[in-house]
């Protein structure tokens, strides 16, 4: 069962190793969910730095230039994200392999984004692990590295080696890790912020029937915040029984449908408190509470302070 809500004390240090030809899309889908998690939680859960093998500017496939914070040889942390994307073959060779092998001792986890899996594999860092890569490279990857258990998945987590198939899957992976490390409540909120329903993907990144059903129930809840439905009605509209809905949400999100629904409504209330001048009574109505006092009590329990205190 997933954890619905938990607290991580230490800030996780993330290094993003960029190569010329990296994908802007992949970079944004990696970093933006981390930024959102910090913003929504009000705590520095993640800190990231852009790295390069040398000290010069790195240029993306579309011409975006990024000045690295420091060279890979000087960096250490919890996660190293390797992101070459296009033209990755040009970056293979003994210099890259040596740098990645040395970095293994300074980072707890290594993540190959897009074609980053190939560079990790060439350095021998994926031997005897399950792994994936951008699906256009999957056949060649499997033939080139027979010692790796290559699978066609959106992303794969095998111990402290993580591989991801592409830019869209990068968002799924990072959201999954936020849920794993910080609780599914925050992961769901991040997914909401980016207007995606894909907030309950499985560990391997593929949305199976159970996750599809949970996502449908979440969408129904999201569409009915001002006038909340009963849990049995949500289950009926999603095409399952209440018992099945309860079971699947506990398994996928670590919370009951009632708990998840309340969080969605209170997230809306918090957004209205922070971004509008609406009175608390009006905010309560818009988030499905007839009684402003009841909404205030729930708000304080969920977020640790009252709407008026947050607005101040």
TrEMBL record:
Assigned keywords, A-Z: Transcription, Transcription regulation
SMART domains per record: HTH_ARAC (SM00342)
Database matches in CDD domains: GATase1_AraC_ArgR_like
GO molecular function, one term: sequence-specific DNA binding
Entries under SUPFAM superfamilies matching the protein: Class I glutamine amidotransferase-like (SSF52317), Homeodomain-like (SSF46689)
A matching Pfam family: HTH_18
Keyword Ion transport recorded: no
PANTHER family: ARAC-FAMILY TRANSCRIPTIONAL REGULATOR (PTHR43130), HTH-TYPE TRANSCRIPTIONAL REGULATOR RV1931C (PTHR43130:SF3)
Protein name per UniProt: HTH-type transcriptional regulator CdhR
Natural source organism: Falsiruegeria mediterranea M17
